[in-house]
Write a structure and sequence with these properties.
It is built from 21 helices and 20 strands. With about 550 residues, the chain is an alpha/beta fold. Helix 1 (about 5-15) crosses helix 2 (about 30-35) and helix 3 runs parallel beside helix 4 (about 75-90).
């Protein structure tokens, strides 16, 4: 006999859960008790939003559901921000929410909320476990749902008394990742469509990628003379130094790249959903003729043809198709060299820095980091114009080195960096955060210190909400409203938490400050003071095309 909390802890361990991210609550005390007897690390966080974002980042890093556990009411609503990231980014995740006892349901009891009803619009599946006997089969189904088709979050409500109730129940079965395949005939058809094109482009994205797929796309691009662009915040899917990598589709995208891509007569969409960022506001392709040569590869059949009509579609992940395309060389792969070279020159020119106001040039700092960090260093970030400098100037070199929210969620970078360091203790982990982004989750610096997560946080500090100011100055010039903010001394704050702090007021001072932070062997924060004009004006980063 086991109480429900122990049954649940056993099922999480059975499914390979390495760690859970929690903010403790009285509604799931039995589960906390159950975790003591299994080999699952409990990462105690400072805010439910931070816990959920750490779980989401863990899901990105591992391909298996990251698990967050929070209490009902305000705990659940705080955690919803991380669930939204997981849904938008197609990340497997499991959120467990403590609920009032069953006998108090629907009585407006303390902190009661209709958890399943609240989360259904932003997750793949939401339900309540009514008895401890249902726990094994429910957890098994939850893991399968989170990883199948288009991956995403699952939310389960846990009545408090259910977790305390004793039960004699057998464990469930471990859930593996879905298996995908491509027939030789389907691969041949895709190869023929590509071979007929004069200006094809591959767009890589989605969440179901792998180290092998990253290697395979390089070989396919070489064999088929195929330019490759990355969708929003998936730049690590191909070594950016490769001559066939030509840039990324992001907000503040290279405008010349957008122009060139609209000339394309064939798009090979590998894993991405072809949403607004990947198509620059649904403007790529520009001509209906390109749609007749659109090859869409995505694991969820419901995504195929949903936003764009396709000539050929495959409900699978990119890897098996890429493996077959390696074997199918076109008759003359050299005929597209001019097209490829035009796109590569466009990318090289875009990476040339433009001097901006102030003594600190964020572009030069990102170029230095790109040249000096280990190839496997993990970079995390949240949302804001500062991230555009990372997209533009940093070259990602190996798979799973970019952990960032395609949902555009502020505050994500710090929790994600902590999750990344816990998963990869030996790798360098850098969080790039704007000052507004940082202040949304900076209390998780305490979590980093407690867990000995030796991350380095670089804060682009300009005292404003830069993205909003940029759009404000465009639409309502000279009328500043609600975009200024007061900041703490971030370096002093890091030291107050017990970490290492640095302040940088000039570009030339950054390398030494970074090396001191690295050698401190502690969580470190580098506060770089940036002129507000450098990342708030439309001259620095162009806004999303209208």
């Amino acid at each position: 006999m086991r109480h429900g909390g122990r049954v649940l802890a056993d099922q999480l361990a059975l499914q390979g859960t390495e760690r859970v991210f929690t903010v403790p609550g009285e509604s799931f005390l039995a589960l906390l008790d159950g975790l003591l007897d299994v080999s699952i690390e409990n990462i105690v966080c400072r805010h439910e939003g931070g816990a959920a974002m750490m779980a989401e980042a863990h899901g990105k890093l591992t391909g298996r559901p990251g698990v967050a556990i929070v209490t009902r009411g305000p705990g659940a609503t705080n955690a919803s921000s991380g669930v939204h990231v997981a849904r938008h980014d197609s990340t497997p995740m499991l959120l467990l929410v403590g609920q009032v006892p069953r006998r108090q349901r629907h009585l407006d009891a303390f902190q009661e909320i209709e958890i399943a009803q609240m989360f259904r619009p932003i997750c793949k599946w939401a339900a309540e476990i009514e008895t401890p006997e249902k726990i094994p089969e429910t957890i098994e189904y939850a893991f399968r749902t989170a990883m199948s088709g288009r991956p995403g979050p699952v939310v389960l409500s846990l009545p408090e008394d259910m977790l305390h109730e004793m039960a004699d129940v057998a464990d469930g079965e471990p859930v593996g990742r879905p298996h995908y395949a491509v027939t030789p005939e389907d691969a041949q058809r895709a190869a023929e469509i590509l071979a007929a094109a004069e200006k094809p482009v591959a767009i890589v994205g989605g969440s179901l990628w792998s180290t092998h797929a990253a290697q395979s796309i390089e070989r396919v691009s070489e064999i088929h003379s195929l330019p490759v662009v990355a969708s929003f915040r998936r730049q690590h899917y191909m070594d950016n130094r490769h001559p066939n990598y030509v840039g990324d589709l992001t907000f503040g995208v290279n405008p010349e790249l957008t122009v060139l891509l609209r000339e394309s007569d064939c798009l090979l969409a590998l894993g991405c959903r072809l949403s607004d960022a990947a198509t620059q506001g649904f403007t790529i392709p520009a001509e209906p003729s390109a749609l007749r040569s659109l090859i869409h590869v995505h694991p969820d059949p419901g995504e195929l043809g949903r936003l764009w009509p396709t000539r050929f579609q495959l409900a699978t992940v990119p890897e098996p198709l890429l493996d077959r395309l390696i074997e199918l060389a076109p008759p003359d792969g050299r005929k597209r060299r001019d097209w490829l070279e035009r796109l590569r020159r466009c990318y090289a020119e875009w990476r040339q820095p433009t001097p901006l106001p102030g003594p600190v040039q964020l572009s030069e700092i990102l170029l230095w980091l790109s040249d000096n960090l280990p190839a496997d260093a993990i970079i995390t970030n949240g949302a804001g114009n500062y991230a555009g400098f990372l997209h533009r100037y940093f070259r990602f070199k190996t798979y799973m080195t970019q952990i960032a929210p395609t949902s555009g969620s502020m505050g994500y970078g710090l929790p994600a960096a902590i999750a990344a360091k816990l998963a990869h203790r030996q790798r360098t982990v850098i969080c790039l955060a704007g000052d507004g982004c940082m202040q949304m989750t900076l209390n998780e610096l305490s979590t980093a210190l407690q867990q000995n997560a030796k991350i380095i946080v670089i804060v682009a500090n300009n005292g404003i909400y830069g993205t909003i100011r940029m759009h404000q100055e465009k639409h309502f010039p000279g009328r500043v409203s609600g975009t200024e903010m007061h900041n703490p001394d971030f370096a002093a704050l890091a030291r107050a938490y017990g970490g290492h702090g640095e302040t940088v007021n000039a570009t030339a001072d950054f390398p030494d400050a970074f090396n001191r932070a690295l050698q401190s062997d502690r969580m470190a924060v580098i506060d770089i003071r940036i002129d507000p004009r450098a990342i708030s004006t439309t001259g620095a980063l162009r806004p999303f095309p209208e």
